C-alpha cells in the first residue's frame, strides 16, 4: 500500500504556515526599526516600578480642582452629545439611500465621511486654534465626532428598515414628514437611542482626552500633573476618570433598559 | 360601548421615558448655563478658521522625505506591533474570561476587570503613562496601543470562544488529546475567522490612534505634527494631515479588501 495514500487527520496547511512566518519576519523587522531593545525594556520596568511607587497613595488633597474639572468634563460630554445627536438625526436621515434622492445622500455622506476621517484629537487641535483654549473647542470636537459616528450608524439602520409601512403611508397620501414620523422613526428609534447612549459614553471618555491639547476638561489637569511629575495627583485624576466613565456606563445601561422593554 | 384609546406603553413605561427626557433636558440646561464659554470666541471662529486654512495652503511638500516619511513608517510599525502585542496579551485574558474554558467565576471576574480597565483608559492616557515609564519614543507608543487594545480584542475573542460548539471539543477530549491539541484543533478552527476579523478591525483603529499618540511624545507622525504646530509651520501641518488622511483611508481600503476576499 502506498504511504502517500494514507489519510492524514490534520493535513499541514503550508500557505498558512508561510503566512505565520511572514508575520514573524515583519515583527522582527518592525521591532528592529522601532529601536525596541530588551535592555531598554528592562530599564523601563525599573522606571515603571518607581513611577507606580510614586503614584501610591493617590493624593486627593486638591479635590476642589478635581471636582471642578470633572464637572467641566461632564458638561462638555452632555452638551456635545445633545447637539451631536440633534445634528446627526437629520444628517443620518438624509444619508439613507432608500428614502432620499442622490442629491441629498451625497452631501450628507460627505459630511459623515469628513467627520469620521480624523481622530478627535486632531479636530481638537484645529478647534483650539479656531476658538481658543477652553471647553468650547472640546464641545465642537465632540459634536463632530458624534455626527460621524451616529450619523453613519443611523443611516445604516434606516437602510435596513422594512419599507412596507412607508409604502402604506405614502399610498394613504401622507406628506413627507408624516411618513418619516409614523413609518420610519418607530422602526429605528430604539436603535437610535442605543447609539445615542453609546455616544454619550464615548464622549465622556473622549472629553477626558481632548483636554490634553487644551480643549477643556480634566485632560488638561491630567497632562499638567504629568508634566510637573505630580504623580500622586495623576493617580487621583486617573481613578476619578475611571469612576466617571463607569458612572456613565451605568447611566447608559439604565436608559437602554427603560427604552428596550 | 365606551370608546377606548389604545396606547403602546403602560403608564409606568411612559413615566420612565418622560423622566429620562426630563433628566436629559435638565442636564443640558444646567451644563449650558454653567459651562465657561466666551461667545466672542465663537463669533470670531469663522475668521480664525479661514486664517488657519490660508496659512495651511499650499501644503509644504519640500521636506516630506527627510521628516514626514520616516515618521509615517514608524506610525505604521507602531500600529502593527501594537496590534500583535495586544493579540498576544489578550489571548490568555480571553481564555480566562470565557466561562466554558475557565469554569472558575472568580477568574472570569478578574479577566473582566482587566478588560474593563484596559478599555476605560484612553489611548492618549496610556501613552502618557508609558512615556513616563519607557521615556519618549516608539516603545512607549507600541505599549500604549497594545494595552488599550487588550480590552477590545480580549472581550470579542472571549465571546467568540464562549460560542464554540462542543462537538469537536468533546470528540478530541474523548481520544485523550492533551489540552494544547484540543485548543489548536478544536477551539482554534472555530474562532479563527473571528480572530482575524477582530485583528483587522483593531488594526484599522490602531492606525488612526497611532497617528495621534505622538502628541504626548509616544513616537510616530504625531510627534512631527506636534513640532510643526508648536513652530506655527502650518504648511507642514497641512502636509502631515494629508498624510494621516491618506494612511487612514489606505488602511480602511486594505481591511475592506481583505475582508471581502479572504474572511
Spell out the key features of this protein:
heterodimer, A: 261 residues, mainly alpha, MetI-like fold, 2 domains, extended, B: 263 residues, 10 helices
What does this entry look like structurally?
The complex is a heterodimer of chains A (261) and B (263). Chain A is built from ten helices and no strands. Chain A has 261 residues and is mostly helical. Chain A folds into two domains: 41 residues; 197 residues, MetI-like (MetI-like fold). The radius of gyration of chain A is 26 Å and the shape is extended. The N and C termini of chain A lie far apart (67 Å). The mean pLDDT of chain A is 85. By secondary structure, chain B is mainly α. Chain B contains ten helices and no strands. At the A-B interface, helix 1, helix 2, helix 3, helix 5 and helix 6 of A face helix 1, helix 2, helix 3, helix 4 and helix 5 of B.
**Please, how many domains of chain A?**
2
The count of strands of chain B amounts to 0
Give the DSSP E fraction of chain A (strand runs of 2 or more residues).
under 5%
Span between termini of chain B:
62 Å
Q: Show unreliable segments of chain A.
A: none
Query: How many separate helices of chain B?
Result: 10
